[in-house]
Design the sequence.
């Protein structure tokens, strides 16, 4: 394995994709283990709580099903975020059609997966969720990808299909909105 | 509190909060934070968000990986089935029928040409050439009086190359208009019987 195929001793995404294309199923397992946590965090912050794992799974199934179309102009993770976001939007649309919005109790939102410690599950955390719920879907995606996942504006633009400048504007609008809500 | 207008510095806050900055960038941010209450408040929001939103939900990665592998296998089988269906279609599709018809016509023409070539051999021509008798009035032997003047004889049969086969129905014998008509008819047959196997298996395409 050459240096370009490994990073820190681990095979790169590109090398694993090549192995997958060559029939190595283990490569899929490594890629899922590597990226599923970030995708799950993103899906959760987009408001998907009930069937989070199903959305994450669909994201990977779709991604691997269309790897031929992945040109590696962006990173695999960015591409996964893009697919996950589209799935979340589709589900939100169909849920709106199927049933009225049901407000999720903030406590449930905080404790449904990996309960935060009692110290963190405070009024501030609840209010942060409430502030996030007030953001537009685009603002929420951009804010999450910048703050939680540490993506650059360029990567965010690829993931949410917008321009770098627009991503920056969405981020600062989101921060302002959250701050205002928390200051009230 | 007035919002800080230093967007470059504010852009660095998420990276600073995650500990992703190094060296001079860290020092620059900390200098700015020391003087900017708005950015200190924003940093607090960012840190809270990282704490709350950074919680990783539990997902069963082995189950997800298994689903990926299973889905890929199904897709591979489906692709193979489509390829087989397309290969079968090559032999039965209307467009192939047209190809076969054209090939058959060419064989017919070629066969006819071969027969014609064989019949052009000298012996055969000599034996079978039409015998044309032409009676020619000779000035030296005037017609007997009372008889009608003789008319220059026309051969009863136009001297064509005998035994030349007509390949009526062969493409080379058809005029342009007839060819056009034949092609239109073939196209009409195509339209009547065209069934795309791919259409019967919509799930195999555009599934993503």
Sequence:
């Amino acid at each position: 394995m050459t240096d370009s195929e490994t990073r820190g001793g681990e095979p790169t995404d590109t090398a694993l994709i090549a192995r997958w294309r060559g029939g190595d199923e283990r490569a899929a397992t490594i890629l899922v283990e590597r990226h599923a946590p970030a995708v799950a965090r993103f899906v959760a912050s987009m408001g998907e709580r009930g069937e989070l794992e199903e959305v994450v799974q669909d994201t990977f199934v779709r991604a691997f099903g269309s790897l031929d179309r992945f040109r590696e102009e962006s990173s695999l993770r960015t591409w996964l975020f893009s697919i996950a976001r589209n799935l979340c939007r589709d589900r939100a649309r169909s849920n709106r059609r199927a049933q009225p919005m049901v407000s999720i109790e903030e406590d449930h939102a905080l404790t449904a997966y990996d309960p935060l410690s009692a110290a963190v599950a405070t009024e501030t955390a609840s209010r942060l969720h409430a502030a996030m719920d007030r953001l537009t879907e685009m603002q929420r995606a951009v804010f999450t990808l910048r703050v939680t996942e540490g993506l650059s504006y360029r990567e965010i633009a690829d993931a949410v299909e917008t321009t770098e400048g627009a991503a920056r504007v969405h981020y600062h609008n989101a921060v302002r909105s959250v701050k205002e809500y928390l200051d009230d | 509190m007035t919002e800080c207008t230093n967007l470059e510095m504010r852009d660095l806050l998420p990276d600073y909060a995650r500990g992703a900055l190094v060296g001079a960038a860290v020092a620059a941010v900390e200098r700015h934070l020391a003087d900017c209450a708005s950015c200190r408040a924003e940093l607090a929001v960012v840190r809270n968000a990282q704490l709350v939103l950074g919680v990783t939900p539990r997902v069963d990665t082995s189950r997800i990986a298994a689903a990926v592998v299973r889905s890929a296998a199904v897709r591979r089988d489906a692709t193979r089935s489509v390829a087989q269906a397309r290969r079968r279609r090559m032999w039965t599709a209307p467009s192939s029928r047209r190809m076969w018809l054209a090939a058959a016509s060419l064989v017919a023409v070629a066969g006819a040409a071969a027969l014609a070539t064989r019949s052009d051999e000298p012996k055969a021509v000599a034996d079978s050439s039409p015998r044309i008798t032409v009676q020619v009035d000779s000035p030296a032997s005037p017609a007997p009086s009372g008889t009608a003047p003789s008319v220059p004889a026309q051969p009863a049969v136009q001297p064509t190359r005998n035994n030349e086969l007509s390949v009526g129905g062969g493409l080379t014998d058809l005029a342009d208009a007839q060819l056009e008509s034949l092609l239109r008819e073939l196209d009409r047959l195509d339209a009547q019987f065209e069934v795309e196997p791919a259409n019967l298996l919509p799930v195999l395409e555009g599934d993503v």
